[in-house]
Design a protein that fits this description.
Blueprint lengths: L6 H36 L4 H16 L2 H16 L5 H26 L3 H9 L4 H26 L1
Helix pairs in contact: 1-2, 1-4, 2-4, 3-4, 5-6
Length: 154
């Protein structure tokens, strides 16, 4: 006695695909920006910055996405008297949520860089951002050359 799924529903779903893709790409781009800064804060030499990033990750990974959507849409209006349209609110909530996960993933990738590369960069008196850049670039180049040599040998 349930409702059947007909062509009208199917066409409705087809019309929603471009909006879904646009929202997904926007949230991924926003999450990448947030995640980059979270990853940098997680490995920063300053302990309060690391705590701040850890708290952010714990908050956004520990709360349901639906609650974050409600807080973004309704909470901004109530707390700060800012009325936000639905699309920017969803984009903001999804960007903050994905940024927490991407930041933690990238932090793990950065910490996987061998200590010898960090020490070599420090011996060259490079600043922390330059150490981060050159150590991670070297890691990417090395993994790319390993993949190329592995594909040639097979």
């Amino acid at each position: 006695m349930g409702r059947s799924f007909g062509t009208g529903e199917f066409l409705f779903l087809l019309k929603a695909i471009p909006s879904t893709l646009l929202l997904s790409l926007g949230a991924l781009a926003g999450g990448a920006i947030v995640g980059f800064f979270i990853a940098i804060l997680r490995i920063a030499p300053s302990r309060p910055l690391r705590w701040l990033a850890t708290g952010y990750i714990g908050l956004f990974q520990g709360t349901p996405v639906l609650m974050q959507l409600f807080v973004t849409y309704y909470g901004l209006a109530v707390l700060f008297n800012i009325q936000v349209d639905a699309w920017p609110a969803v984009l903001l909530a999804f960007s903050l949520y994905s940024g927490a996960f991407l930041g933690e993933i990238w932090r793990g990738s950065i910490e996987a860089i061998p200590r010898a590369q960090w020490e070599a960069a420090a011996c060259l008196s490079l600043s922390f951002p330059k150490q981060l850049w050159y150590a991670s670039c070297r890691k990417r180049r090395a993994s790319r050359s390993r993949r190329r040599s592995a594909s040639r040998s097979s």
